[in-house]
Amino acid sequence: MRAWRTPPCLTSLRHSDLQKRQNSASANTNYFIKEALKELEYPQKLQRLLLTPQREVLVELVITKDNGEIETFNAYRVQHDDSRGPYKGGLRYHPKVDLDDVRSLASLMTWKTAVMDIPFGGAKGGISVDPKLLSERELEKLTRKLVQAIKDTIGPQVDIPAPDVGSNASVMAWFFDEYSKFSGFSPGVVTGKPVHLHGSYGREAATGRGTVFATREMLKATGAGSITDKKFVIQGFGNVGSWAAEIFEEHGGKVIAVSDAFGAVYNENGLDIKALRRHIADGDLLSAFSEGEAIDKDTILSIPCDVLVPAAIEGVINADTAGQVDAKYVVEAANGPTTPEGDKILRERGIVVLPDIYTNGGGVTVSFFEWVQNLQNFRWEEEEVNKRLDLKMTEAFAQIWEISRQKKLPLRTAAFVKALQSVTRAHLHRGFD
Ligand SMILES: NC(=O)C1=CN([C@@H]2O[C@H](COP(=O)(O)OP(=O)(O)OC[C@H]3O[C@@H](n4cnc5c(N)ncnc54)[C@H](OP(=O)(O)O)[C@@H]3O)[C@@H](O)[C@H]2O)C=CC1
Ligand SMILES: O=C(O)CCC(=O)C(=O)O
């Protein structure tokens, strides 16, 4: 096993020190990995290596708020596996972020980069904060404090953060700027930056666009035809959900309902997504969109449709809700939206699930393209980015589909089998001494 250096400024937690929770996010992720490990029959010690993170970092961040008071926040960075390349994964700013969530999300990144066949490992970070309660200045301070606290564990060849729930291109710009103060000009330390500040064309829309390419491939392979005239319901209308909605619409799909944390809106003939996005950009409530009917956001999963797209938070399709899903397909644009219990119910009901570690892999794929452009100090046109993304999504689907057919496995297990084989091969080639 390689030795991991932990800088003295950080509190490094060992797995044995950490509290274990039943039905936690990481237990759910490990359940799905173990399902695939049963197919592969790897030895126990190798399984442990694959299941547990390589390093977990917990830091305390203190800022002075605009009103002069000080406030303290917990922040995390979990580095799960770097056998295939530098650790890679987003930063989540959300009040419910805890170490277990981040551990689960970091593991998903390892399998996602392997499924997409891009030369990165897996990591994730987060701050327990509600960014909506901070001013922009406070958010900037908090981000800079995070960089100061973890700068020795990250870097363009070590660990490369990116946006996730609650963070965005501005946060990435502050991150890049702060890191560059310590290490010199380093645009490759973070991806998802603004396009005019070493970001890539196409990264902002990439996760949503990749979700649409993934759905297109799945519909084709299962004999359901094309996206045109299919009905879509999307939970979550942030970066991923809103871009997916717009691009489904561009492909002729009808997005009949979408929701956010506060409400939902429905139109059986299809919502005008560009108009809805303008409505929200003007600061209006999603549910107040006049070209749709406001509905209870908790009914979103049970609206009849062809494709249900969870694009918000974890664990929403579970033992209580999976029975109410009225879709032929569930396309997991969010990370971890389905619990093992929910997944079992969907399988029993014959609902096809396109798993997160493939479906939302478009984001990290274009992050890889951004990183490559940063290392080369060169910019690709948007058309080129989208074309390459399409190719990666199409190739990865073909491989998962083939494993699923050959081994008679659900698409989720097939995706994990592909990823586990790839990561294991890297570990064995690199060796452990
Ligand atoms: N951004 C990226 O590139 C990638 C993101 N993902 C995953 O996609 C998912 C969404 O991320 P992203 O779009 O970036 O995040 P955003 O913060 O941009 O958007 C999250 C959306 O989810 C909504 N939401 C939050 N809680 C609920 C709820 N209980 N019910 C319904 N909607 C809710 C939010 O509503 P409100 O605005 O009202 O708070 C918002 O519309 C996450 O699982 C993330 O990990 C995966 C790969 C890459
Ligand atoms: O773009 C990236 O590097 C990672 C995005 C992310 O956090 C994810 O795919 O869940």
UniProtKB/TrEMBL annotation:
InterPro entries: Aminoacid_DH-like_N_sf, Glu/Leu/Phe/Val/Trp_DH, Glu/Leu/Phe/Val/Trp_DH_C, Glu/Leu/Phe/Val/Trp_DH_dimer, Glu/Leu/Phe/Val_DH_AS, Glu_DH, NAD(P)-bd_dom_sf, NAD_bind_Glu_DH. NAD(+) binds at T207, N239. Keywords: NAD, Nucleotide-binding, Oxidoreductase. Residues 200-431 form the Glutamate/phenylalanine/leucine/valine/L-tryptophan dehydrogenase C-terminal domain. GO terms for molecular function: glutamate dehydrogenase (NAD+) activity; nucleotide binding. The keyword Ribonucleoprotein does not apply. This is Glutamate dehydrogenase. It comes from Coccomyxa subellipsoidea (strain C-169).
